[in-house]
Amino acid sequence: MIKDAFNPESFRATGHELIDMLADYLTQLQQNPSDVLVSKTQSPDEQLNKWQNFVGDQDWGNYFKEYLEDSIHLHHAKYMGHQITVPAPISSLAALMSDLLNNGMGVYEMGQPSVVMEHLVAQRLAKKMGFDAQAGGFLTSGGTLANLTALLAARRKKASQDVWKTGNHQPMALLVSEQAHYCVERAVRIMGWGDAGVIKVPVDENFRLRTDLLETYYQQAKAEGKEVIAAVGSACSTATGAYDDLEALADFCQKHDLWFHVDGAHGASAVFSNKFNAKVKGINRADSVIMDFHKTLLVPALATGVIFKDVNDSYNTFAQNAHYLWSNDEDKEWFNLAKRTFETTKFPMGFKIFTVWNHYGDELLEEMIDTIFGLGEQFGEMVAQHPQFELPMVPECNIVCFRYIDSSEDLNAVNRRIRQAILEEGKFYLVQTLLSGDTYLRVTLANPATTIQDLEELLEYITQIAKAEVSV
Ligand SMILES: Cc1ncc(COP(=O)(O)O)c(C=O)c1O
Q: What is the pTM for the complete model shown?
């Protein structure tokens, strides 16, 4: 059995067959996308039933085909759902290679090229964000973990007590927009600050944190005996794609000596675009920034940069002895990544990023952001001009919320039904969100292959669904 599992010739044959199948798949999605549904929605029970009764045999081709058919197709031009990028195939090949080699790379010895590539990616990203040579960082497994990692560094630097040694004794808190991604609140709770640790600042009519309220919320927290250590800016926030005013947040943090963290999981990639980088003006004044390459920048998940204005801060978060991994716990060794990351065995995500970035240069990443953010702008204009739809705000990136309004029924119910009908039919894939209590449809235009015609078809299709449902 073991011999069979490691047979290089069956690997070669199956590998060729798989790559051929995937290349045909990509060709079909590029040339005849309308022949393929974006997703074939089945219930969890149907999928469970299928796979638990799936008999393993030597027909790998059939097995991979079944997996492909049941998956959601991000390379389809009508995929417009969650915030996850369409991987450039070369990056996926790098992922295949690194999966086979399985270099753990938490320490240098266990993945020399990927450790160095990760270092270079972090340095280049820091530079792209406008930081100076003192900045640096690393990559980690997703935005959620990245925010927690950065906020632990904030606590280490700003808290009056050494929580790492003594545990939490003093109520601590941070300020963040009420529209921020839930993982910021999750990080706060993991750090043991509880309900009172997240001070949610209201947003304005464009869903941006109201920086004019920061002082009031801060003073109130202090009066309640909380030690406020940080403020978090969203660049951008998840539901609407709105960018907080990072300059104003930086000024506020400077005034009160707070750690300034930017959750740029989705939208810090605007730094790659000359057209859109004004959205993140002030990002280089942050103490830490995180950014997911797997949300907008052509790299398969997970691949998240964690950048510190002062790279020294990244070494202080975790201070633990691990003599089986490195000889000196105190040394700031950029090449022994596990000293600074949650992960010990670490996925070589730098390789996937480096493969795309180093080969195609900044130009590809800029073209990607210009294309998908540009689609967001154009779709916003189309919706604004369409009498049967409305926008809650002018879109700022490739995330666009909108809703159908030409109905005398409850609009929330109408839009929920539209989303459900789209999901069930599978011709498009989009999601929904709740804004100020109202249901909106929400697209993330992640695929550069999406065209204006696709977007026109979407509005037409929604109108048809809405009319059909109203007349039922
Ligand atoms: C603003 C923001 N922060 C953090 C996250 C979490 O990132 P991840 O899914 O990579 O853990 C998201 C995900 O949508 C996000 O939009």
A: 0.97
